[in-house]
Amino acid sequence: MERKDFLKKSLALCGLSMIPAAIIESCSKQSYAGPGNVNFTLDLTSSANAALNSVGGYILNSSGVIVIRTGASTYVALSTICTHQGCTVNYNKAGAQLVCPCHGGVYDTAGNVVSGPPPSPLTKYTITRSGNILTIKS
Ligand code: FES
Question: Could you tell me the fold of the domain covering 32-137?
Answer without folding.
Answer: Rieske Iron-sulfur Protein (2.102.10)
